[in-house]
Structures are given as C-alpha cells and as structure tokens.
Amino acid sequence: MRFLTTRLRAALAALALLVCAASLSAGDKAPTFPLDQVKPGMKGVMYTIFAGDEVEKVDLVVLGILHNAMGPKQDVILVQLLGEKAEHTGVVAGMSGSPVFFDGKLAGALSLKIGIFNKEAIGGVTPIASMLEVATASAPAASASALPPSSPNSLYAGTSDARFNASAMRVPVPGNFMRRASAGAGDFLIPIETPLIMTGVYPETLVQFSRELSAWGMTGMAGGTAEPSPDDANIKPGDMVGMELIRGDLSLSPGCTVTSVEDGRVLACGHPLFSFGSVALPLTRGHVVTTLASSMASTKLMTSGGTIGTLTQDRTTAVMGKLGPGPAMIPLDVTLTTPIAEKKFHFEVIENAQLTPVLVALAAFNGIASNPAYSEGFTLQLEGSIELKGHSAVHIENLFAPTDMPVPAGVFVATAVQGNFARIYSNPYERPKVERIQLHVTALTERRVAQIDNAWIEKSEVRPGETVSVKVLLRPYRGTAFIQEIPVTIPEQAARGTLQLVVSDAETLNRNVQFLANNSQAQLPGLEELINLMNRERQNDRLYATLLQPTPTLLVEDKEMPNAPISEINVLDQHQAPGGSRLLYQSKAGEWSVEMHQVIAGERAIAITVK
Questions:
Q1: pLDDT: is 345 or 577 the higher one?
Q2: Would you say 551 and 610 are in contact if contact means Cβ atoms under 8 Å apart?
Q3: Which of 379, 452, 457, 565 has its CB surrounded by the most CB atoms within 10 Å?
C-alpha cells in the first residue's frame, strides 16, 4: 500500500509538471501571481534544469518580502528552496531566471542568493511585474558615444563603473527572516552568478582578463558548443539560453534560465547581464551537462547550441529577447606566425561599444597564447586593420618587445588593439559600424629593443640645402652598442639662426597627434578626421630625426599649423573653446626616419646653427 502511495505521489507530481509546462509553452500567456498576495509561509515551486534538458520542479517556501530592496518600488521575495537536490547544491550559478509559481501562476524569477559558503538554499525572487516592465522600456539604443572616458592605453579601457557589478550589489536581509531558515544573520543577497560558457580559451587568457569577467558578475566555466537543432527554438520556462559574445575558434556565451516565453518574447535571468539597456546579442539554446555542487559556489556546466533569436534588452530586473534570426556580428581574423609555424583563427564578435574592445583584445591575446612555438623571448610585430562602413580603414602597425615586468608581451598587443577600438567607439561624432577586423601577429626571435644613448653631427654649422649625417648611438638589450646614421637635409628656406634637431622614438612625436585625437574639448570635423589622425601615428620600430625651428605651431582640430602668425593665433584664441587648441613654441622644418626592426626608446636634442 505504501508503495502504491509513493507511486501515486510521483505520478501526480509528474502530471503537475507536465500541466504547468503545457500551460506555459511558447506563445501562451502565462497567468501571473500579484506580489501583494505573496505571504510568508506560502508554499510554491520553481522550475529549473540540473542536468540535460529536463526541467525539474523544486519546492520552496516564502520567508518574507524585502521592500525597496533593489531600489524604489523594486521589491524582492525571499524564499528557501526545499528538497534533496536544492539542499545538496544550494542556489546554483545559472539558476537566474528560474520561474517561480504560486498556485500555478507565475510570480517571478529566482535571481539572488545568500553570499557564499552558505549551506542554506536561500534566494531572492524578482517579482514578475518588475520583469514585465522591461517589455515596455523605451530607452534609445545604446550609442557608441556612451562609452565612458578612460585611458585608451588601458587594458580595461572602455569599461563603466556604472555597469552591473555583482560584488557591489548587495541587499541586507533582516535577521528575523534568517532565523526562520536557521541561517546566520548578517548575510546579504547578491545576484546569482551567470555561468560564462567558454571554449577554446587558454588559462593564460583567463589570468589576464579575470578582472573583467569577475566585474561582469560572471563565473567562467569550461563548456562546449552543441550542434544546432531544429528544436532549439522550442524553449519553455525553466530551459537554458545563452547570449553569445564571441563565436568561432573561441566562444564566450553567458547563460541563464528562461522565465517566460510569450508570443516569441523571451524573459530571462531576473537580473541584468551588464545593465547596458538596449542591446543586440545573439540568443542561443543552452544545454546543461551537469550541476557541479560546491560549498563555495555551485554552478551549471553548460554547452551552447544554435542561434534562436536576439537579446534586445539588458535591464535591472531581467533580460529580454525575441525569437527569430540573430543579429549580425563582426568577422575577426587573427593570424600568428612564428619561425616554425603559422596558425589562423576566425571569430565573430558582437558589436557593442562597451564590450567589443575588450572582446577583440581577449581574442587577439588568446590567439597568441595558442601557438606552442611562441614564448616570452619573442618580440611581437602587429599588423592589422579595422574596416568601417563609409570610412577609411584604421591601420594598426607596431612592435612589442618583452620587458622585465611580469607581463606577457601579448598583453601589450591586446592593449594596443583595445586602445584603437576604444577611441573609435568613444568618438562624439557618429556611431561607427565596424565591418571587419584583421590582425596578423609575427613572433620575431630575440628581445628587440634599443635605447638611444647619444646623438651628434660632425659639424655644428650648416647651410640651407646642405645634407648632414646624424650619428645615433644605440644600445640594444644585452648586445653591443652600434651607430646608426640618418641623413638630414637642411631646407632651402631655413632661416639663419639656431635650430634644434631632435633624435627620438615614435612616442615623442606621437604626443601632438594623440593630443588632437584624444582632446575631448577639441571638436574634429568628424570620424574620418579622427581615423586620419590615428593613421598618422608613427611606428615605434623606426628611429626619427626632427628639425625644429623657433616659430609657433598651432594644433587645431585635426591640423598641425606650423609657423602660425600671431594675428592668426589671436583670432583663433577668440573663437576656440578653452582647451580646444594648443600652442607649441616650435615648428617642424623637416622629419626623417629609418626602419630599425626593433623597438626604439629615448630622445636626444642637438643644436644646429644655420649660416
């Protein structure tokens, strides 16, 4: 008799699950449960996946309501999960968005958990009314100009302090609620981590970019990709979905649980991914391999399947997408050449002002780390282009030598690429449309770097039109010093008097160009002029000799105006906004360079008298 009763209960539970799943299939309107009817002690159920594609029911009990916990009128339902699996795993990374029901009506989505190392399966539920507000969000699409100002040379340039940050988002829980669940007081509710499904990512890459991943509130997990299936788009509440950031020879795809599917509209997560507002990310079908239980942080191990739609909204209370075709992505080709091998990689990355720069940098660094023939003794030569619709391509070319710092040379390559993207996306003129990215990294043997130790000419007095040889003493890394000559021709129109000849690296000469490109108060005519300035930057593997004369140079918009007359300077000073121009007290009379095939550093000045 007891056996029959057990079988009957199991059958009834399975029937209830099937009825709920059938009533909430894609395209059906789910009945909702009002927040004002949720009471402490109320029993409910949650639906989620622990393994495979089987949606399972988890019982729960309401501990209380936390009013204004996430902000004004943003309440949270505090619940405790019940049952053997929930007690074993606790609240799991990837459960975000798991739908919660009372009396067969959708009340919201599990989205928060109690800290770490907590044995009680206590979580916070975002009410369904708050999630549905995402569907009515009317904010304009995120623009490229929204990229916050930061140093374009920072590996983490283009990131926002205002974005979603799991570690900073903490909701205190009243002690009386915690005592009901036999949990310790003083804990906080924090957003459930989002598993970041990664394939083809090397440990060295994770080390360098772990700061970004953790700031995004994501838990990096080794995962995989699954072959697309015609049934991928047939999702229901409790299923898993992924949001692709990169795909191809490397893939990154955060995943969470579907809360509801109605007329092709998908609500998920119950909290934001990045808080970017309007977005366009490929939405994919997610599959759970298994759930890894951990005292610190349990997580779902996932794979990402075929594209099923587009994620369109990334808001405080949920993410929302629509089923159908996915958005276009940017093709990215990375080639790494070493003396004994060559590897080519193809990726596609999302186009997003905040994410694309760091994603391209990550893919570039990962490609470098992938070649076993590459080691830290190599100097890296970067050549590449960023093709933009309706504009000239941005050309990238530089040399990167290893240093004594514990930073791989590949990081400097990634930094250079990311800096270029940050400057493109942060332009105040128009929203750029990147069409293609091509990067070619060549690993050159030895640490190729040389310091300028001294510079001189054999005669200090010259005549206009005369050519003199500048001798430069260079000291390579752990090598014998050598002399490089640069022929310099004094211009025919050079005035009598003292001129200054500066022998330098590229960085010294790029300061003026970078001032024009990065000065936010100096409005350039447009994006094309910014690209031209970026392409004017000198290469760091050349040795430069620049002849300067004591007449003023005015930097205005994208132009360097040498020998500017005082009258012109006064007129421009009256019309330019403060900081919109810059006055230099020397003008360039000529510039010469020679390719050195190694990174040049340093600067020396020589006085020359023109008779």
A1: 345
A2: no
A3: 379
Packing angle, helices 409-425 and 356-369, rounded to 10: 160
Cβ atoms of 586 and 557 within 8 Å: the answer is no
* Domain-embedded: residue 12: no
Q: Is residue 19 part of a domain?
A: no
pLDDT at 18 over 60: no
199-219 pLDDT tens trace: 888 888 888 888 877 777 676
By residue range, what is the domain housing residue 421? 330-444
**What total number of domains does the chain contain?**
3
Cα gap 436→434, rounded to integer Å: 6
H helix count then E strand count, the chain: 10, 35
Q: What's the whole-model pTM score?
A: 0.80
Least confident of 23-27, 89-93, 479-483, 551-555: 23-27
Helix %, strand %, coil % of the chain (to 5): 20, 40, 40
Residue 356 is part of a domain; what is its CATH number? 3.10.20
Strand partners, 603: 504
What's the rounded Cα separation, in Å, for the pair 92 and 189? 14
**118 and 232, same domain (yes or no):** yes
CA distance 360 to 574: 43
Do 312 and 349 sit in the same domain of this protein?
A: no
pLDDT tens digit sequence for 414-458: 999 999 998 899 888 899 999 999 999 998 888 899 999 999 998
Can you tell me the distance from the alpha carbon of 24 to that of 26, in angstroms, rounded to the nearest whole number? Answer: 7
Residue 516 has phi, psi (to 5 degrees) of -65, -40
> Are 415 and 465 found together in one domain?
no
